[in-house]
Design a protein that fits this description.
- By secondary structure, the protein is mainly α.
- Helix content is about 70%, strand content about 5%.
- It contains four helices and two strands, in the order H-H-E-H-H-E.
- The chain has a two-stranded parallel sheet with strand order 1-2.
- The protein starts with a helix and ends in a 5-residue tail after the last strand.
Length: about 110
């Protein structure tokens, strides 16, 4: 009985650590995608008039997060809802609404 409890505790701890690691990888993927969108916007800025610079936005989507997660971390089976939730959190934390638009709120 004690061995069973210890095994269950280890399994639960391993599952919690795996979930935390996946969340960390998805947060990093969101940050990479947000930074890439901002770089793309900065490249376009010199070409835009001052009026257009005020309202021009770049787009970062859930699919961008999934693509970065696959490219950088080899993640192939990520839940879109989880990726959308993490993108929403990182988008808000990094004040994405100032210069970015996203589809994360549609999921």
């Amino acid at each position: 009985m004690i061995r069973t409890l210890i095994r269950r505790r280890r399994e639960r701890r391993a599952a919690e650590q795996a979930a935390a690691h996946l969340d960390a990888q998805l947060r990093e993927s969101a940050d990479i995608a947000i930074s890439a969108a901002r770089r793309q916007l900065r490249r376009r800025m010199p070409e835009l008039s001052l009026e257009d610079q005020v309202c021009d936005r770049e787009r970062v989507d859930v699919q961008d997060i999934l693509d970065v997660a696959h490219e950088h971390f080899g993640l192939t089976d990520v839940d879109r809802e989880q990726a959308a939730a993490i993108l929403r959190a990182r988008y808000e934390l990094r004040t994405g609404a100032l210069d970015l638009i996203t589809d994360a709120y549609d999921h």
